[in-house]
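Researcher: I'd like a structural prediction for the single chain below. Treat it as a standalone chain; there are no partners to consider.
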Amino acid sequence: MQDIARHLATTLRRLRREQGWSLDRTARETGVSKAMLGQIERGESSPTVATLWKIASGFRVSFSTLFTASAAPAQQEPVWGEDSAGMQARLLFPYDPVLGFEMFEIELAPGAVSASAPHARGVVEHIVVVEGRLALDVDDQPRELAAGETLRFYADRPHVMRNAGEGRLRFHDVIHYLPGAASGG
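Model: Treating it as a single chain, here is the predicted structure.
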């Protein structure tokens, strides 16, 4: 987990340097507090997936940019620890700028809920439930998916994912960035 914190710290500093942004400007653009950003840059925080999405959206980069070096294969750091919301993610395919997508395997612990702020405009998620039951609310419209079921939705609006079963929930999440929605960082 310490390696992940160190990598996030380095990546956030690099993104700020490339944009020429102060911590104040970064806080405004991402919606993440200056204090939290400072903790991430010092490697003192394990931010939730929702916080990391805010950072990626604010910088207009793909989510996987926060976890992979641009030339590193996905196998170098395939699993991130479980966040405070009970979510664990494994990168299956890092962001591909030609195809405009990245793919994750997500697990939610029993009873876990992950609320996401809107992602960058033009981001579309494709969900394929592999195991368990996923409750998903997009624009306050609830849906429940079982193993083998799929859903595609625009993720540039608030959405909430919840493990609706008593056991493990595992699903694949293909995140598609329409042109201009993200860069590789």
